[in-house]
Structures are given as structure tokens and as C-alpha cells.
Backbone:
């Protein structure tokens, strides 16, 4: 597989990330934002009760509309930067990524990224809306979150390497990689401490469920679109190069 120039790699990655970010921002606005607003309404109820008890009110510095706009812009910017990082990792790994084509390899890498960076930490520390959670546990949850991602990346790399090990028969590679994935996942979830926040009794379980599912759908769709767009651009470039090469060969042969 031909190596794409660094500049073209970064450009394709930025475009793929921007497209994924646009889709992610739309999903966040239509699917995730309603749960956030519902959670904030519950928090406002708590604050109103506290203000009634203590006799003071706080001014709203930033409106909810401004927060939403900034959040959607952040999704777009972070996705674009993630797309660049994704493209550089894809270029660095080269043929070590599974897949029979450029698009297949890009989507496979996106799937591995989703599993390691999104799914694993989401299972260990399920996400809560911004207004739900104990601020005192932020540090512990952050360390656990990052530790989970690190362990998941190591496990994913080991499983992928084993699945592509040339010294093993194809059938044995599949069995060994599957066994390692299952055993490693069980060990990971057993070793990582439980630091998830308890949900207050007056927060509906359906609200939490909708937020968690919506967040996973949003990020999963972003990974899929990013891998798909980058793969499409890579294959389009490869076809263009093949066409130029074929025309050059034909012109050389005719002279």
C-alpha cells in the first residue's frame, strides 16, 4: 500500500474529522441536548430550594444557548483535531492495520479506536449529564477513565497483533485473538475500581439511560464517519495515482 504524503494525510484527516464533527454536533443537539436540559432543570430545582433556604440567588453568567453553541463548536474542533491524529496514526501503522483495502483499514482502525477510547471507559464509568454527579469524585473518576483508556489501548493492540501473527495458522489466530479479547476484557473490568457516581433518587433512570445511549451513538457515529470518509479519500487518491501512472506508462510506450 502506497504511503500518502504527510501534508495530504493531515488534510484528509482534518476533512474526515470535520465531517464527523458536523454529524456529531447534529446528533448532540437533537439526541443528547434534551437529556442535558432535563438534568439542568432538575439541578435548577435543587438550587431554587437551596436559595429559598439560604435567602440568596446567583446570577447566570452564560446563557444555556451560549453554552450549547460553544459545546457544538467544541465538538467540531475536537473532531477535526482527532481526525488529524487518526490520519497520522493510520499512516504510521500502515499495513499493520487489518483490512483488505484503504477504506477497510480506515474503518477497522476507527472501530478499534471506538472500542478503546469510547466503549471501554463508558462501560467502566458510565457517563452522566453535566448536572448529575458528585464533584468530590472528579479526580478519582478522571484517573480511572484515563487508566481504562490506556489499558484498553494496550489490550486492543495485543489482540490485533495476535490476530495478524504470521507464525500461527489462520484458524488458530482467530481463536487465540478472541480468547485474549475475552480474558483481557474480563480482567480489565475486574481490576478497574468502581468509582461511578450514585444517581440521586429524584433523577429519572430513563433520563440517564437516554443520555448514555445518545452519547454512545454520537461518538460511535463520529468514529464511523471519520473512518469512512478518510478511507474514501485514501482510495480516491490511490485511484487517481493509478490513473496517472497508467497514462504515463501508455505515453512512454507510444514514444
Residues:
Amino acid at each position: 500500500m502506497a504511503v500518502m504524503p504527510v501534508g495530504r494525510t493531515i488534510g484528509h484527516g482534518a476533512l474526515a474529522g470535520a465531517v464527523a464533527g458536523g454529524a456529531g454536533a447534529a446528533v448532540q443537539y437533537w439526541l443528547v441536548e434534551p437529556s442535558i436540559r432535563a438534568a439542568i432543570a432538575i439541578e435548577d430545582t435543587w438550587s431554587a430550594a437551596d436559595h429559598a433556604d439560604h435567602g440568596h440567588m446567583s446570577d447566570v453568567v452564560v446563557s444555556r444557548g451560549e453554552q450549547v453553541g460553544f459545546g457544538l463548536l467544541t465538538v467540531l474542533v475536537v473532531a477535526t483535531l482527532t481526525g488529524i491524529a487518526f490520519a497520522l496514526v493510520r499512516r504510521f501503522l500502515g499495513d499493520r492495520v487489518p483490512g483488505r483495502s484503504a477504506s477497510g483499514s480506515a474503518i477497522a482502525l476507527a472501530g478499534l479506536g471506538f472500542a478503546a477510547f469510547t466503549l471501554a471507559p463508558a462501560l467502566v464509568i458510565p457517563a452522566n449529564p453535566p448536572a448529575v454527579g458528585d464533584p468530590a469524585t472528579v479526580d478519582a473518576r478522571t484517573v480511572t477513565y484515563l487508566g481504562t483508556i490506556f489499558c484498553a489501548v494496550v489490550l486492543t493492540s495485543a489482540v490485533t497483533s495476535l490476530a495478524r501473527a504470521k507464525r500461527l495458522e489462520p484458524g488458530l489466530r482467530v481463536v487465540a485473538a478472541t480468547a485474549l479479547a475475552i480474558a483481557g476484557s474480563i480482567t480489565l473490568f475486574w481490576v478497574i475500581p468502581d468509582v461511578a457516581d450514585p444517581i440521586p433518587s429524584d433523577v429519572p433512570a430513563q433520563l440517564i439511560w437516554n443520555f448514555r445511549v445518545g452519547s454512545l451513538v454520537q461518538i460511535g457515529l463520529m468514529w464511523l464517519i471519520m473512518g469512512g470518509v478518510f478511507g474514501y479519500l485514501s482510495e480516491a487518491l490511490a485511484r487517481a495515482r493509478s490513473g496517472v501512472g497508467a497514462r504515463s506508462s501508455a505515453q512512454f510506450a507510444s514514444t
